[in-house]
Amino acid sequence: MAIQWFPGHMASARKKAAEAMAGVDVVIEVVDARLPEASTNPLVHELRKHRQRPCLKILNKADLADPAATRAWLDHYNRMDGVHAVALSCRKPGEAQRIPTLCQALAPHRDSLLKPLRMMIMGVPNVGKSTLLNALVKRRVAAVGDEPAITKALTTYDLPQKRTIVDTPGLLWPKIEHPGDGLMLAASHSIGRNAFSDIEVSCFLGDLLLARYAALLTARYGFPVEGLDAVGVIEAVARRRGFRLKGGDADFDKAAFVLLQDYRDGVLGRISLETPQTRAAMLEAAAAAVAAQAEARRVAAAEKAKEKAARAEALAAQANADAAADSSEASDAHVAPGFVIDGDDQIEGKRADDR
Ligand SMILES: Nc1nc2c(ncn2[C@@H]2O[C@H](COP(=O)(O)OP(=O)(O)OP(=O)(O)O)[C@@H](O)[C@H]2O)c(=O)[nH]1
Ligand SMILES: [Mg+2]
């Protein structure tokens, strides 16, 4: 089943962000550079479009992402109309300082003390929104931490030149359409831990790493990965690290969590969970699956209609046969008294007539 997480504080944050949008000139949408599309929230687009606000898209945590994939994503986004995308690492002091200038270029009319620039940071949980805010304010005014939903309320902060910036709680959306997106978000710690199983997400991550970053697994844990699947990788991590249960079996849960945490901390190396090519292939496969389901539904409905028609035809034929039988019985019944000489009645009758 697809992973979903839309706790109550997000529903109210969505409402408040929609209200705040009226007093904002530019939306800074922070996504995770390792999964830029899976961490793009359709609600942000919806709220922004409603007020026609421009968007600066920030692929944050670029220090953790595969540089080739990040370059491909920037090309992909910057070819789109009305989107300006940059990659950065908010952990590196100074990298964020160009953000207000980039936002200013998107709202050139808001460039004076009378009409100062107003920005709002939005994005899914744990992508580094508050870290970016702190870098811009140059003080640790907002709490940050490596878990989802650290920020719980919208807060406005002042910047030089009377500019303002709003930090918002991480927002997801009520239904994550593609199961892979939920798994990528969970692997990257953007989803509350009660909403998914570490083992399922770790197996997803293990398969992805085997397919695209197998050498990083060997480099980190020191075992060859040939012939292994995700479960084999997690078991091998447990063996290598000596994670054992009381009876001596491998502690699979612990090893699954360690694999996840190593990815989250970036100690496996620079990894991107999706590229524009893998995304396009995933969307194509999803569209083909939807089309196949629709076709299966159509065939099943046609089959059902055919069965219904056949049943109706059989019933009609039966009714005709019954009617025919009834009418022949009825005509037999008419004829019988006159013509069937059945024993004494007729003879009796004759006798009576004769009499
Ligand atoms: N490696 C790396 N870590 C980052 C970067 N930016 C933020 N982080 C870390 O990511 C974690 C989440 O950062 P926050 O700023 O709290 O994220 P947020 O988007 O405000 O999260 P919520 O308020 O929960 O929605 C923290 O541990 C940060 O130190 C970055 O560019 N690179
Ligand atoms: Mg925050």
Distance between the termini: 95 Å
Assembly type of the chains comes to single chain
Secondary-structure content class: alpha/beta
Strand segment count: 6
Task: Please tell me the total number of domains.
Answer: 3
Number of helices: 12
The Rg value, from CA coordinates, equals: 35 Å
Name the helix and strand elements from N-terminus to C-terminus, one letter apiece. HEHEHEHEHEEHHHHHHH
What is the CATH-assigned architecture of the largest domain? 3-Layer(aba) Sandwich
Q: What is the C-level CATH assignment of the largest domain?
A: Alpha Beta
Mean pLDDT: 92
Characterise the protein shown here.
This protein is an alpha/beta fold and 355 residues long. It contains twelve helices and six strands. A six-stranded mixed sheet has the order 3-2-1-4-6-5. It binds guanosine-5'-triphosphate and magnesium ion. Magnesium ion binds at residues 129-130, 150-151. Residues 129-130, 150-151 line the site of magnesium ion.
